[in-house]
């Protein structure tokens, strides 16, 4: 009788484990890989479409579609651009007409993915002026910080705004102290490399949690994430002038001041020998955010 009770107990336990695993399997759902990836290429010059390989701005918009895809990312010049919409812009800066490989990765359910690569020919003719390069790198390397002592050092306005802080002007006091913004340093080197010294934490829009990785910590204040743990990182910087507007672009997920996603390109609004102000459109296409930097 004791043996019978023992075997009944083991059978019951195995049955519970079996049905529990079955329920887990049902919760996972089907794994479906995307297929039929298509990539379209649009060349842009001064805000309008231009014929291939462009008229010299180096700006290209890529759009990807695929069956059974729920998100995408692009790999362009060793930069990964996360774009759930399947659309990404990139500015190529190597002078002349050059050919580049662009890869679109489509993700389906259960993490399944598929990719497709194409080659694009792009023309870039912009050469940055010497005084801009001198301001940014001082001929070798230069460090900048958010100029927290001046008005409008951080603000926002409508997309395409023509002034700093049109909708929300920041005062002339460091009122974002304690967020992880003011202790950051942005180092630009003459060889085209860039280092963001974070002092351990950064400040940004809530989408940074899903986009830049990390532990998912920090303090949420409305749509802001304060003191998000993030280590120092390095990348590259480039200068272009689409539509005649001097523009600073950081590789990968590089950012300045406050993470907003988007294309990681910053239009230079004003500049002097020791600093500059920037405008950038966020990843949701809702606002233009501005930052003022001063040489450290």
Describe this entry's structure for a reader.
This protein is mainly β. The chain folds into two domains: 90 residues, Immunoglobulin-like (Sandwich); 166 residues, Beta Barrel (Lipocalin). Helix content is 13%, strand content 44%. The strands form four sheets. An eight-stranded antiparallel beta barrel has the order 9-11-12-16-17-18-19-20. Strands 2-1-3-6 form a four-stranded antiparallel beta sheet, with no helix packed on it. Strands 5-4-7-8 form a four-stranded antiparallel beta sheet, with no helix packed on it. Strand 14 and strand 15 form a beta hairpin. The N and C termini lie far apart (83 Å). The relative contact order is 0.13. The N terminus is likely disordered. It comes from Seonamhaeicola maritimus.
Summarize the helices and strands and which ones pair or pack.
Blueprint: H1 2-28, E1 35-45, E2 48-50, E3 59-67, E4 71-76, E5 79-83, E6 87-91, E7 96-107, E8 113-124, H2 130-137, E9 141-146, E10 154-157, E11 185-189, E12 193-197, E13 201-205, H3 208-211, E14 219-221, E15 224-229, E16 233-240, E17 247-250, E18 265-271, E19 275-281, E20 288-295
Antiparallel strand pairs: 1-2, 1-3, 3-6, 4-5, 4-7, 7-8, 9-11, 9-20, 10-20, 11-12, 12-16, 13-15, 14-15, 16-17, 17-18, 18-19, 19-20
Keywords: Signal
Signal peptide: 1-23
Protein name: Glucan endo-1,3-beta-D-glucosidase
């Amino acid at each position: 009788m004791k043996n019978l009770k023992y075997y009944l107990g083991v059978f019951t336990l195995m049955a519970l484990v079996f049905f529990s695993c079955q329920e887990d399997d049902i919760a996972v759902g089907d794994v479906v890989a995307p297929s039929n990836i298509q990539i379209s290429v649009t060349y842009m010059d001064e805000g309008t479409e231009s014929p291939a390989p462009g008229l010299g701005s180096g700006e290209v918009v890529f759009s990807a579609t695929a069956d059974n895809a729920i998100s995408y990312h692009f790999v362009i010049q060793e930069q990964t651009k996360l774009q759930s919409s399947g659309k990404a812009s990139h500015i190529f800066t190597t002078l002349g007409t050059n050919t580049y490989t662009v890869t679109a990765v489509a993700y389906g359910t259960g993490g399944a993915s598929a990719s497709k690569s194409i080659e694009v020919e792009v023309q870039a003719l912009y050469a940055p002026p010497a005084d801009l390069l001198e301001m940014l790198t001082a001929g070798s390397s230069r460090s900048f910080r958010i100029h927290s002592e001046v008005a409008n050092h951080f603000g926002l306005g409508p997309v395409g705004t023509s002034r700093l802080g049109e909708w929300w002007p920041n005062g002339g006091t460091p009122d974002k102290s304690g967020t992880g913004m003011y202790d950051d340093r942005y180092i630009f080197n003459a060889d085209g490399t860039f280092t963001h010294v974070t002092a351990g934490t950064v400040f940004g829009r809530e989408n940074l949690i899903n986009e830049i990785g990390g532990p998912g910590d920090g303090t949420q204040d409305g749509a802001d994430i304060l003191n998000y743990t993030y280590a120092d990182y390095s990348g590259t910087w480039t200068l272009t002038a689409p539509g005649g507007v001097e523009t600073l672009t950081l590789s990968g997920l590089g950012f300045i001041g406050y993470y907003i996603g988007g294309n990681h390109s910053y239009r230079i609004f004003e500049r002097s020998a020791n600093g500059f102000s920037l405008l950038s459109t966020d990843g949701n296409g809702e606002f233009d955010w501005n930052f003022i930097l001063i040489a450290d």
